[in-house]
Amino acid sequence: LFLMASLILAALMIIAFLCVYLVARFGTAIQAILMNIARLVRPLGPEDYKIGVFIGYADDDYSFVRHVLMTYLEERCQMVTFVHQRDLGQGYKVKQFDQAITNSWRVLLVLSRSFLQDYDMSQIVMMFASHSVTAMNRKRVIALVEKGQVHAIPSDLYGVLDESSIIFFDDFHNQLNYEQRHRIKHCLRPS
């Protein structure tokens, strides 16, 4: 009797250990399988992210970003924004950009001539932005494009942009007009 109880207890401990190991090792896969089985797949919303909007821009465009775009997004739309000149800490820039984009509900890129041709981090930011689009957040990337620069947008980024998420600007020195504000607000809505 004592031997039988010991064997049962040992078997239960081994099974418990294996279950804990499998859950720790394959937790994400198990979660995905359970979500698919239970049909709980839903598009992610702003509440699922730490940052509302990551703003990618060239240093030359900071005045527009700071005085026009951030004012609109933070004050009027009540969104938390990530701006690299304000929010980037010490350390590896590339890793921080990757984490900020991953933790953002929307990625808004100010695609000016300066950003597309002169900014040293533009390729990295555009690559992270294009790779951040998932089935759970398809309309993640929004592009504010300076007129005349649409042909300079890399094809991998252009491929993830929806027609409604490309907003054209004559230049980035003016205030947002009604149509631009309306289109930005429309792009920020959960899809």
TrEMBL record:
Family matches, as Gene3D superfamilies: Toll/interleukin-1 receptor homology (TIR) domain
Residues passing through the membrane, by range: 6-24
Residue ranges occupied by any TIR domain in the UniProt entry: 49-180
Database matches in InterPro entries: TIR_dom, Toll_tir_struct_dom_sf
Biological process according to GO: signal transduction
Keywords assigned by UniProt, alphabetized: Membrane, Transmembrane, Transmembrane helix
Protein's recorded name: TIR domain-containing protein
Species per Swiss-Prot/TrEMBL record: Candidula unifasciata
